[in-house]
Amino acid sequence: MAKKDSAARRAAPQTERFRPQRLALAILCAWPLASQVQAATPTETELKDVVVTATRSEAQTKDVAGTVTATTRKQIERSGATSLTRALADEPDVSLPGDSRRFGEGTINIRGIEDNRVLMLTDGVRGADFRSPGTTNYDANNRDLPFVEFLKQIEIVRGPSSSLYGSDAIGGVVGFLTLDPADLLKGRSFATGASLGYYSADKSTRSTAYLATGGDKLQSLLMVGQAHGQETDNQGDVAVQGRTRSAPNPLSWKKTDLLGKVVFTPSAAHRFKLTLEHKESQTDVDAQRVGNTASLARITTNLGSDSLQRDRIVLDYDYTPTASWFDSLAVRLYAQRQATDNENLQLRTNTSSSCSASSAGTTNCRVDQNFAYRQSHTGLSVQQEKAFTLWLPQQATWGADLLRTRTEEAKYMTWTNLATGASSNTLIGDTYPRTDYPRGHTDQLGLFAQDEIRVGALSLVPGLRFDSFKLSPEDDPLYKRTDGRSAVSKSDSHLSPKLAALYAMSPDWNLYAQYVEGYRGPNYEELNRWFANGSQRYAVIGNPELEPETSRSVEIGSKYAGPRWGGQFSLYQNHYSKFIEYTLLPSGDPRGVTGYSTYQYQNLDGVVIRGGELRGYWQALPALRLSAALAVTQGSVTSTGEPLNSVEPKRISVAAAWTPSDKWGAEWRLRAASGKEHIDTSSTDYYRPSGYGVNDLSAWWQIQSRVRINVALNNVFDKSYYLWGDVRRAGLTANDLAPEFYTQPGRNFALTVKLDY
To answer: What is the pTM of this model?
Structure first.
């Protein structure tokens, strides 16, 4: 294997590595200082239908102009979800396109918009950029997701949100809120607990433990999670190497997550919170089915080892004075670093003397590769709020965001002739180490203001955000181009307005409408990438002429939240201008690499996405609750009329929950989708999956006040089905010899035992 240490030394930013021992020490030192309060009998955490991501302050979902949903800790536990894909499976307008071959889930799609156009926040901190697996499925950087056991709520805001969050929120925002000490203490001075689960779909076990302590002024929490498992099952059973393999690639993985928090409240006006997180994951795969093995026929062994490490530190300060020109002040200072290493070992048999992946010959060789990716964030956020009356009652929110993002990448490779022992770091004309784009940093400044003006039953919410960014590449000797050009810098600024209106027909029934604009600047890869594959004769190049993407969104809808029934109906249309897309240049285009099929990031004239959603619930009986959600979306490129492939087919979810007491209950869920009808096949003749309907059952039993069991039986009728996002991500074609490789798991079960003391 390639030397991982050398890649880490090359790509790691010059910051001290966070060590989990320090996290544990900080939390443990804080516990003895906590004052004692009267213990109480533990009960299950109840979370109100309140969100903070949609407006950057607490608001009930029915009072937000726009579509926002919250998935609570209780819902996650009762469904037996072990991943974000499972936790959000019942959201028909949200999907998580995954990579069945190697890298799994790593991006979120909201109403047809995905990747770095959807902002992901964990306790207010942005996640690392997503980098899609390469053509040969070797290198990727997933947007690492928190342990679901650490979450108290997942909030999803649909549509452009740049007026509050700036760049990267052009398609929506996903907010992950992790547990605080108070969520587990619930008025006690001490709380501890653990959970242990088994999941047959990937033969995995998961274990978590927490310890919380505190009083009125000082509280602390330490959570530890660990999981390990194997490849995710599918409906294929042909376990051979090559293009006809339908069984999943042999794979093993393990993850460890450590989360600590200290909350200090010296008085009613002041609150400090320190959050520390350290996460590591490791995956080893025997990729017996390589992406397009027809062009990689000389590869007879392909072993991968992927590691990820993420460290996060956040300091929050909240100030609520009794009398001042503002009502509240929130300051957040944070730093985060994510490091990804993808290692590969290939054996190439009967290949050319230059160790080609495709050309035949008499040489046998070994190829060792390492792809290292590093990204760090350092940021400061300040937000203030004030309620006042100036002719009319108003609630104003304003603030600023500062962020520096550092990104760097490195690729290492050596190959060895197995007969002679001779080795080289030059393969098919490329000399390593090298990088596809130079290291550098991006500085972002955002200034935002929003006001809620109440005129009787009508609330008007105007908002405006100013964003400025500057992308600055740094000198990088590993950045080697053959066209004689240098990396470019980029800067730009933009104003993103918003106007929303909400009319209260009654205390439970609201009508709303909103107009929102979005904005996203190009990133390093889109501007400066340079990669050429001499064996397969294709190249991927950046575009220094790229302009920022913008969007205009209109949404109207109605929300009702009564004691027995409720629902939401919405219609929306989103126009995206200068949409940045990965496109194949025409043959002979002077911008391309001579003699190569050249792909380049380009601004399309525009993309339009429109659709409608319907959600509802009915408390039919005291113990029976019915719910359903439907999403219908269409998207197309305005200049060509071709459909937008990232749009999901029509999807629906239906659920019936039976809860005769607080001791036990059960739930039935149906997830269904139509076949994907409108597909742009200009670059790929995609496999067309048919529609499906999948039934899941789950049940829970509170054996006693401190012990609870959750069990789930998924895909009860062993349905064989595909997810369109997975098919699209893999480029699965209509003539594939074994499409079953990309099917979802058959009948499977999950069992979790949870203890709370």
So the answer is: 0.87
Label residues 514-527 b or e (16+ Cβ within 10 Å = b): bebbbbbbbbbbbb
Q: What's the pLDDT at 12?
A: 40
In a domain, 46, yes or no: no
CB neighbourhood size of 443 (10 A) = 14
Q: How far apart are CA 177 and CA 26, in angstroms?
A: 22
Most confident of 382-396, 535-549, 598-612: 382-396
Query: Is the distance from CB of 662 to CB of 638 less than 8 angstroms?
Result: no
| CB 261 within 8 Å of CB 271 | no
Q: What is the largest CA-CA distance in the chain?
A: 87
Residue 450 exposed, middle or buried by CB count within 10 Å (0-12, 13-18, 19+): buried
Contacts of 681 (CB under 8 A, 6+ apart): none
Identify any residues that bridge with 1 across adjacent strands, giving them in sequence order.
none
Q: Which domain holds residue 386?
A: 4-36+51-756
* CB contact at 8 A, 524 and 471: yes
In a domain, 44, yes or no: no
CATH number of residue 273's parent domain: 2.40.170.20
* Residue 45 within any structural domain of the chain: no
CA 68, 73, 78, 83 dihedral sign is positive
Render pLDDT for 463-472 as a digit per residue (tens, 0 to 9).
999 999 999 9
- Which of 411-415, 534-538, 698-702, 715-719 is least confident? 534-538
> By CB neighbour count within 10 A (0-12 exposed, 13-18 middle, 19+ buried), where does 600 fall?
buried
Q: How many CA atoms lie within 13 A of 466 on its CB side?
A: 5
Domains: count for the chain: 1
Q: Is 174 left (phi over 0), alpha (psi -120 to 50) or beta?
A: beta
